[in-house]
């Protein structure tokens, strides 16, 4: 009798826990690289949302369109299961649209997880790096914009 009692109760418990898990996964924000990007604010950068998992970082070192989804890098030059060249093409196309809107150069940056041969890699002119390495790279750029330029470009931003 105890086995029958535990059997259906255990099944009900598993069903409830599964349902709660699905609810939590839909309500809790997914991890992205935005947390690492926030450290740019203290260095004179403005972070502007440009879509889901996409931020425009405008500051002293220039303008960067950061794709902060954190897709894993896998063998065979794939990012998030997609060929790296295709990811770079899409990132470059988004950055080109922002360049036209801002009237200034915008460097695309793709944030990834996993091991990379180098801390910061390039696919054409697209930067590929883990979040902390990308922030270090952006902060290491020489000053290209003053405060007035940063303010002016931020005002032109259209998500």
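Sequence proposed for the structure above (159 residues):
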């Amino acid at each position: 009798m105890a086995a029958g009692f535990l059997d259906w109760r255990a099944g009900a418990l598993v069903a409830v826990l599964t349902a709660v898990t699905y609810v939590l996964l839909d309500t809790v924000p997914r991890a992205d690289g935005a947390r690492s990007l926030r450290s740019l604010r203290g260095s004179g950068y403005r972070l502007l949302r440009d879509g889901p998992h996409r931020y425009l970082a405008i500051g002293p070192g220039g303008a960067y369109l950061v794709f902060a989804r954190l897709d894993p890098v896998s063998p065979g030059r794939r990012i998030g299961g997609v060929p790296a060249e295709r990811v770079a093409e899409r990132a470059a196309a988004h950055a080109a649209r922002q360049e036209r809107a801002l009237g200034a150069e915008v460097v695309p940056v793709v944030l990834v997880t996993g091991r990379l041969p180098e801390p910061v890699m390039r696919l054409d002119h697209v930067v590929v790096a883990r979040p902390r390495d990308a922030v270090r790279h952006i902060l290491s750029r020489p000053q290209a914009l003053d405060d007035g330029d940063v303010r002016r470009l931020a005002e032109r931003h259209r998500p």
